[in-house]
């Protein structure tokens, strides 16, 4: 009888643990961070230095990225659109400016992501541009030696965003050539959210030093890499992160790349 009782107890314990793990998996998949303390980190896929040196094919899927955060930015494989993730939904802004929600199987070449939890916030109620926004954020950063993610919602009088032209192998041009010739999108009088990250300058060529911002409009019809804007009001929320994790692509392109080119698009 004791043997049967012990066996029943072990089966019950295994069943309970399995059920618990299933619940955690569901919460991660749904980007519900209320009970997932371990994922309070800055996640990065690939490194900026590889991205600059024409590594334009990745093996990270959209489905996997959604398990790493509920906000994010980056670029899709072959540079087929700018990536901006807001509230757990990754968007793809194509080179013609159209906005899509890609399939879970779509591949990503470079990404930053995190589960956003507001640590600090402030409002801006006067008209300002991109340079002034960065200046005010710098004034409000608790420390420039930590990592931060941002959600900045507001009303914009106008904005200019950039994309990238889709590439096909063999890749001949790096970002030092592609970015100055990038497609540009503009729009007037609308609302939306800037999503971005701040890395301390000591990050070097692993990531973009300083601020990196992407954008998606509330009506999901406009977005891209933030270049310039004039905003009427802004609500700035930031999340300070003390943990940093980067994952390297398991691809031949990354294994064989040479790191000859150094290029930082914007460091402010």
From TrEMBL:
UniProt keywords, alphabetically: Acetoin biosynthesis, Decarboxylase, Lyase, Signal
GO MF terms, alphabetically ordered: acetolactate decarboxylase activity
UniProt-listed Enzyme Commission number(s): 4.1.1.5
Keyword Membrane: no
Reaction it catalyzes: (2S)-2-acetolactate + H(+) = (R)-acetoin + CO2
Range of residues in the leader sequence: 1-21
NCBIfam families (UniProt xref): acetolac_decarb
Protein name as it appears in the record: Alpha-acetolactate decarboxylase
Species classification: Bacteria, Pseudomonadati, Bacteroidota, Flavobacteriia, Flavobacteriales
């Amino acid at each position: 009888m004791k043997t049967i009782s012990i066996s029943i107890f072990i089966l019950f314990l295994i069943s309970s643990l399995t059920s618990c793990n299933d619940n955690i998996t569901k919460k991660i998949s749904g980007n519900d961070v209320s009970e997932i303390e371990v994922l309070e980190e800055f996640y990065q896929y690939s490194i900026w230095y590889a991205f600059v040196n024409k590594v334009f094919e990745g093996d990270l899927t959209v489905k996997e990225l959604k398990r790493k955060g509920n906000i994010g930015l980056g670029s899709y494989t072959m540079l087929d659109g700018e990536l901006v993730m807001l509230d757990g939904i990754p968007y793809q802004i194509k080179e013609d400016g159209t906005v899509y929600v890609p399939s879970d199987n779509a591949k990503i070449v470079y990404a930053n992501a995190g589960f956003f939890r507001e640590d600090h916030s402030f409002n801006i109620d006067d008209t300002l541009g991109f340079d002034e926004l960065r200046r005010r954020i710098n004034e409000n950063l608790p420390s420039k030696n930590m990592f931060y993610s941002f959600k900045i919602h507001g009303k914009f009088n106008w904005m200019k965003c950039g994309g990238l032209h889709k590439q096909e192998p063999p890749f001949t041009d790096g970002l030092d050539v592609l970015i100055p010739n990038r497609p540009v999108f503009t729009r007037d009088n609308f609302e939306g959210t800037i999503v971005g990250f701040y890395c301390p300058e000591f990050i070097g060529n692993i990531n973009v030093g300083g601020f990196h911002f992407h954008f998606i409009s509330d009506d999901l019809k406009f977005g891209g890499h933030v270049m310039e804007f004039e905003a009427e009001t802004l609500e700035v929320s930031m999340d300070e992160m003390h943990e940093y994790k980067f994952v390297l692509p398991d691809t031949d392109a990354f294994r064989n790349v040479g790191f000859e080119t150094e290029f930082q698009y914007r460091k402010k």
